[in-house]
Recover the amino acids of this structure.
């Protein structure tokens, strides 16, 4: 970690990881402005109940990220979505006697990458443990996981809240990151009812697929903050290329813990777990509903009715419903996995991995901000690493930043959405877009013409120059030519000229339209207006 | 994994027991056998549970000798066995297991390509 300068914020025991970094970055500020900065960075949302009492929600999130490796965590079975049930199985992942696990080196690599991206402390030596329980989708009767010595701990993640929800920056602590394996898939015939079929079906293709579990500090205070935390984590794993982070597909799963307490009280309230949220917006709605439910109960003196339990989010009725009692902590009889040696990393390996990391979302957002873009634009451009890379290449050619941003977020985005393509799938190169923008800037074509020819660049990969020449679309900026056009239009429309000179100045638009029609839209609009006005007003 | 037929020779234990009674070892609680059997899905009769209690208790006491050692300044060992220098990781290259048919053939009941199991609604039964 950075060497830290003398700073008030660090005098507290256990300074927050976010503060350590902000100290290193901002310690040349006076202490007054520094503490103000820190205060702004921390969330301070409270829920005000009907009687005016203020409550605070305490939210923690456990996320399971399915890694996009070619093989499973502990065997060489292909890790593939959508295969025929039980096609990718072997004695190891089926848990047959005598089979031994061997760790996939990519799992370690991805684990270190995520740990570094979350600014956490990496354990150069960590181990695996057996988490023991019985369930039909768990072939061995235990899950290989990491219990007390995980690969990483004590990190943080930077989040920028969307502008339309008030914006703001947050920094949430990460308790730990660890490696583990996924269980198989259990399909209940006849639905989840007790009646109906008495059997279920198991597909072990997913058993043994590598997971990274990320546990956050309970520092989120609203459904919005929780949803944005999850979105940023998704953005991070996609930027790193370690997972597609798809909540709908199940490659990223979030379980949320929510409790409430009167504002200012140090003790936590009863913790309720919420499962079954399939999107960020579902997470936000579920958490806000649950906060409301708990605050209402607390406020009516019925706080004892809040049980430590697991509740399911019901998308249809938009509410959480009780699933079962959590009955205190489960006893998984953890013990060190005897079949796996410790995971040993060298500092060189960690440093080399750090050097290979791409520019992370938060760093990109700060850089785009420094370019003068609005926060709104920054959030859109930095959301997808391919779009950001495209943008970086365009401005790398010296193109005007705001113009590049507008073209990418506007016309280009709209076309991609319509064609259902990704930015990497078009024939338009960043260089071609840069050229188009420059041609508009130097007056060769108008912005309108630029928009007209963009689809050709996207579909056929022609350059702007080629498209302009092919269609003869270059802008007319010769004053003499424009003057003769204007003279002709004035001569042809004496009535409108008289009306204009009589006071109907709005008719200027009519004349502009006429000249544009005659010239195929190619006249330089600014020059046209100047010449037109001088001729009409003489 | 443990088998249910566990028989311990009691003969040599008594002398060790006498020696231990004077040591300052902190007591390690023996496990609740009935509880452990339920957790590990072992079926012992109540008679067997009573039979095994003292035997397991004596094994725990024997290991409890380790409590005498002062490890206040010793960092916990992560794992037994030194594998330094040996690469224990596997490259991420897929290979299909050749005898899948034999494995699936040993499954008691199949439903199409799925493994048929009794319906259990309560998750994480530990």
């Amino acid at each position: 970690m950075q060497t830290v300068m003398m700073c008030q914020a660090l005098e507290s025991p256990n300074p927050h990881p976010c503060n350590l970094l902000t100290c290193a970055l901002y310690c040349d500020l006076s202490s007054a402005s520094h503490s103000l900065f820190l205060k702004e960075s921390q969330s301070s949302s409270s829920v005000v109940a009907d009687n005016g009492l203020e409550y605070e929600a305490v939210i923690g999130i456990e996320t399971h990220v399915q890694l996009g490796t070619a093989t499973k965590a502990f065997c060489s079975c292909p890790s593939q979505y959508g295969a025929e049930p039980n096609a990718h199985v072997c004695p190891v992942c089926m848990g047959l006697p005598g089979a031994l696990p061997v760790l996939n080196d990519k799992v370690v690599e991805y684990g270190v990458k995520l740990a570094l991206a979350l600014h956490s402390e990496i354990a150069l030596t960590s181990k695996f443990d057996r988490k023991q329980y019985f369930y039909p989708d768990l072939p061995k009767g235990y899950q290989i996981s990491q219990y007390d010595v995980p690969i990483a701990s004590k990190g943080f993640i930077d989040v920028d809240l969307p502008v339309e929800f008030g914006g703001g920056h947050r920094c949430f602590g990460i308790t730990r990151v660890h490696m583990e394996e996924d269980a198989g898939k259990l399909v209940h015939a006849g639905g989840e009812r007790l009646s109906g079929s008495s059997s279920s079906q198991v597909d072990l293709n997913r058993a043994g697929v590598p997971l990274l579990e990320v546990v956050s500090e309970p520092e989120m205070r609203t459904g919005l903050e929780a949803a944005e935390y999850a979105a940023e984590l998704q953005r991070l794993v996609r930027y790193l290329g370690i997972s597609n982070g798809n909540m709908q597909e199940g490659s990223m799963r979030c379980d949320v813990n929510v409790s409430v307490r009167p504002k200012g009280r140090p003790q936590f309230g009863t913790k309720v777990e919420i499962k079954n949220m399939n999107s960020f917006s579902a997470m936000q709605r579920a958490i806000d509903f649950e906060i409301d439910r708990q605050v209402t109960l607390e406020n009516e003196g019925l706080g004892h009715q809040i049980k430590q339990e697991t509740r399911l989010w019901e998308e249809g009725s938009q509410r959480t419903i009780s699933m079962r009692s959590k009955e205190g902590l489960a006893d998984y009889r953890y013990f060190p996995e005897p079949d796996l040696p410790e995971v040993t990393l060298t500092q060189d390996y960690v440093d080399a991995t750090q050097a290979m990391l791409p520019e992370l979302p938060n760093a990109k957002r700060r850089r785009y901000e420094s370019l003068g873009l609005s926060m709104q634009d920054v959030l859109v451009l930095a959301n997808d690493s391919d779009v950001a890379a495209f943008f970086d290449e365009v401005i790398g050619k010296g193109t005007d930043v705001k113009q590049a941003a507008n073209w990418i977020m506007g016309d280009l985005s709209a076309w991609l959405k319509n064609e259902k393509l990704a930015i990497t799938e078009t024939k338009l190169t960043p260089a071609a877009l840069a050229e188009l923008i420059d041609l508009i800037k130097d007056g060769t074509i108008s912005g309108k013409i630029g928009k007209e020819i963009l689809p050709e660049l996207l579909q056929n990969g022609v350059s702007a120059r080629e498209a302009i020449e092919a269609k003869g679309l270059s802008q007319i900026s010769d004053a003499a030519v424009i003057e003769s056009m204007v003279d002709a239009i004035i001569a042809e429309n004496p009535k409108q000229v008289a009306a204009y000179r009589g006071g109907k100045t709005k008719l200027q638009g009519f004349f502009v339209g006429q000249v544009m029609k005659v010239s195929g839209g190619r006249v330089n609009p600014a020059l046209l207006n100047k010449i037109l006005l001088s001729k009409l007003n003489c | 994994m443990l088998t249910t037929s566990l028989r311990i020779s009691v003969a040599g234990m008594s002398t060790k027991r006498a020696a231990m009674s004077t040591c300052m070892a902190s007591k390690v609680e023996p496990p609740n056998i009935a509880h452990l059997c339920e957790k590990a899905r072992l079926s012992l009769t109540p008679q067997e549970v009573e039979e095994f209690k003292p035997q397991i208790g004596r094994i725990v006491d024997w290991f409890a000798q380790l409590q005498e050692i002062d490890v206040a300044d010793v960092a916990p060992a992560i794992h037994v066995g030194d594998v330094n220098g040996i690469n224990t990781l596997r490259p991420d290259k897929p290979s299909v297991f050749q005898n899948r048919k034999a494995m699936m053939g040993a499954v008691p009941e199949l439903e199409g390509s799925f493994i048929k199991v009794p319906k259990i609604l309560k998750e994480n039964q530990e």
Observations:
- Chain B has four helices and two strands.
- Strands of chain B lie at 110-111, 114-118.
- Chain B touches chain A at residues 39-41, 78-79, 81, 83-84, 88-97, 100, 103-104, 111-126 (CB under 8 Å).
- Residues 38 and 116 of chain B are 24 Å apart (CA to CA).
